[in-house]
Amino acid sequence: MKFIFTFTSLFAAVLLPLTNSPTYAENVPFTAAGDNAVKSNLEKLVGKKVILKVANGDELSGTVKEVGTESVVISQLTGKEFYDALVKIDQIAAVIARARDS
Question: CATH top-level class for 23-96?
Answer without folding.
Answer: mainly beta
